[in-house]
Amino acid sequence: MTDIAEDLSSSQVDPLVKGMTWEQMTPGSAFRTAKRTVTEADLVQFITWAGFNEPLFYDASHAQAGGYQGRLIPGAMIYCIAEGLILQTNVLNGTGLAFMHMELSVKRPVYVGDTLHALVRTTDSRASSKPGRGVVTAAVSVRNQRDEEVLTFTPVRLIRGADFREAH
Asked: Model confidence over 8-21: pLDDT tens digits?
């Protein structure tokens, strides 16, 4: 068997995964992420890590007294899961430069055991003030297993362009 290091350098092999440039993210284009079921372990890790010391998230009887039917998931965690699902598509792999702004709305409760996915639609894409970069705005709809919208957000990102040049 031949040692691959003898035959190739990294610069000679294209990456298997490459994100889209801002020019490729045209208004109206859309994609759907994979799905992910939220577990009790996910909830406990998130509220512990983030310091969400709120009985609504760790006391089932408190949540039930508030009218909730299960172990409630914080909206911040739903957002984080959705962003993770988006990044796992590799749409921004090597092309994302900055997360600049967003608006977020929680639409309905999410519980342990719910399965989430995101629908992402580009709403605006334009060149930035610096060459080789663009500003892309999207509308993200996070859905549960019944295709009910549970959270929406509108990320504005700085994305590399086709003519991007690395700083040296």
From this structure: 787 888 777 889 99
